[in-house]
What does this fold into?
Amino acid sequence: MLQRLESLADGTAYDVIVLGAGGAGMAAALFAAIEGQRVLLVERTEFLGGTTAWSAATTWVPNTQHAEGSGDSPEQAATFLDHAVGNHAGAALRQAFLEAGPQAIACLEAQTEVKFRARPLHPDYIQEVPGAALRGRALEPLPFDGRALGPLFPLLRPPIPEFTVLGGMMVDRDDIGHLLHLRQPGKPGFWQAGRHAARLLARHALDRLRGPRGTRLVMGNALAGRLLLSLARRGVDILVATQTEALLREAGRVTGLVMTQAGLRRQVTARRGVILATGGFNRHPTRRAEMLPRPTPEFSPAAPGHTGEMHDLALGAGARYGEGGMDTAFWAPVSVRTRRDGSTAVFPHFVLDRGKPGIIAVNAAGRRFVNEATSYHLFARAMFRAHETVPSIPCFLVTDAEGIRTYGLGMVRPGGGGFAAFLAEGYLHQGATLAALAGKLGVDAAGLEDTVARMNRFAEAGEDPDFGRGSTAYHRVNGDAAHGPNPNLGPIGTPPFYAVKLWPGDIGAATGLVTDTAARVLDGADRPIPGLYAVGNDMHSIMGGAYPGPGITLGPGITFAWIAARHMAGH
It folds into this structure.
């Protein structure tokens, strides 16, 4: 299982070597092991799980066994992608994904510890095009007991601290709902929420007596944990903190790697080939500035392993990057804070605040420029677009005392207290009036006051004629179902007023290495480079830079991992 490079003799032979231990890489190694191959999984950082371990691990795969009763069909899913993605990516790759995706998920659930579920309501992000679905396509991993990993548990990348409570207790959307319910004694569900919270706290207290963090894993940590346990049971060898220096090639075929770990160098061969799953180019020292839009984003909430080093080696072997996408990366608005230990917390604003009533986003002119309830990808893209004419990077998420008490704001949790540290550090900004807040932000005061007055009229009427906030099922599911007449619109008027700064943050690469439908990396003449495959964000996205639904990186990543492993095994 866990190896040291020193334990491998120079020239040790495997059937398949997988580079990168995020969700796609771990899945590729697992699928290859299921096919009976001898597999080595290599991770350049000290932890397994990649960005998947930090994410919600939503996995977008239409028409799996979990879609039963949703009314979906392969034809409907294909129609949706045709309209949402269009000619920004190859139709053949999309079709291969739609055909193989259900089989890949079925294989995981039948032969490994990986288990998923579909929520009753989890809409596609782009509801305005034909074929959009409300449920059944977005899967999420079941919670997982990390104690099953035993001594392997410390290998899992810990979650982002700001997404935990009480010093390392993970919570998912169900847990958050119960915990918020505790603030409403006397309302239906209060006692049920209390029992749920008591079980969580008791489990976490026991965990902390035994270790540094909780072992009840949810979301991305649950998926990574389930994959790791499955890899262990299949006997896959794993190297961490290991860097790849070169690809070995014979007569044009990739036959292995040259790796280093703690100053030790080894050559390891791969009889059937190498799968790249290193996470993309985003932290490459020069390609970040070359390939991302201007101004080059400074912050990313993704895990640190995707340095793009393997892309240099693949390009040197004849590979090429895909072209024609809507964007080179996938995006989310982020807020930034310096932690006590000096590290930087980059907090992605996915769904917890932007679309809630009484919260708006404005630029330096104090004006809205985007539907705040849209997807995080489209929100950040709108920041770049608006910034071309009016300073909108950073923009500002604004609310009042009632909004921050009810919904929180970024790293500031709901409840209406504990603001002092956030205010002192400059993460949270406060003003007794909107004009005072605008002065602290450097925002046009008259513009902000006019925008808030306009939004308050929209909230009363229940309609946003400027941007259509609350007009789709996706908007509404991320609003407040108990608030009317529009779950996404509410007044801003209770002083003091608050704001946090938002920046565009890249959450993954959309541009990657060109592959065929078997995940083989192609050269400039569209010929497969023998022995070289790419999956996950190393592979040019089948979504063409669009972000039509939750989990559209991980779903294809797992699917093409299954395709690659089967192709390498001769299927």
